[in-house]
Design a protein that fits this description.
Shape: globular
CATH superfamily: Glutaredoxin
Number of domains: 1
Strand content: 15-25%
Structural class: alpha+beta
CATH class: Alpha Beta
Amino acid sequence: MGKKHFFIAIGILIVPVAIFFILNQAKHSFGSLPILGERIPPNGADINDTIYYQVPPFQVWDQTGKQLTANSFDNSIVIASFFFASCTDVCPTLNRRLKTVYDKMKEYAEVQFISFSVDPINDSVEVLADYGKRFEADPNIWHFVTTKNLQEVVNIGQGFLLPVSIEDKTIDHSQQLILMDKSKRIRGFYDSFDDSELKRLNEDIRVLLYEYHKR
């Protein structure tokens, strides 16, 4: 047998083994993520399975003027955050760091990003469109969204289990990133200013992708 045919034969044998090894390692490497929020356990009567907390309904408009609701993300893994366009310190840094996650995950059609403005009075659709361009955000993947009023933002923030409140007609918001699964259950919180937390977020998104694709 010539060297060329020998290496082809070895390659035919090694490739399936390598693929099997990688998949097998993935099975053992990927644990399951916690499901956060209140839960109602089975009671042996009318509740047979645990009922987990789900992000409640919301209605917003993105940088293209498209109306989105919680149901718009029924088949998506979502990374949520809060910001406002005129912010000059925390928010630009938050979104620059979030973009590093976006750049890694945008190839996965089922991963979506939604950034809620906490300044609906000033953050119009046009303002959000310009803001999204600063971060090279594809509006079909990364949605910068606004609401009709401050109270709606508070409701959304609380729906994502964040400590938001209205202060002097503005909203004190969090620099946390929130991971929501396809069932609208919250699976993790991550400090956007901590490199190790961003690494954990990247890993946890992959855990969810693995959970859905191993079925």
